[in-house]
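Q: What would this chain look like folded?
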Amino acid sequence: MSSNNAGSLLSDIDIADTGKKAKKEASGGGGGVEVPGWAQALIILAALGIAGWTVWSFSGSTNKMEASSRERVLIDVNTGEVFESYRISEGDSVPFKNPDTGENTLWPAEECFWTVEGGASLEPHYVLLDEYKGLPGPTKCPVCGRVVKQHNPLPPIEVLVEAAEAAQP
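A: My prediction, written as structure tokens:
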């Protein structure tokens, strides 16, 4: 064997060039389509726009949830009038101001879903607790006569389902 590389198969290969090609092919760059700079910028702008829209839409949902969390059902202690969507402002406290009279006579209402017959009503009866009126003892619902308390529980699910089925035409 001759040590002369003149007739060798490897003599025409540039070793540095071979390394660059191997790296390009290994990274998936071989044979791909080059994307022009303006298209890359357009793709980046579109991605940023979508991200911005997503953040904006979620922040709007939070504001709606926050607003709805400030709405309460209140009853006027003097007149018994029910305010079903009273908006509580930051810093307000009970009793709340009646917008009709300007007096602080509105208290949180409790919901009672029972009927006189012992079934469930699909619409609540709003009850003002006697303690808000300064009266002793438990509060009784004026419709069904059951005791009503703060965070009054719903009837059992079976009773509610029965009421819903009875309401179907």
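The two ends are 102 Å apart (CA to CA).
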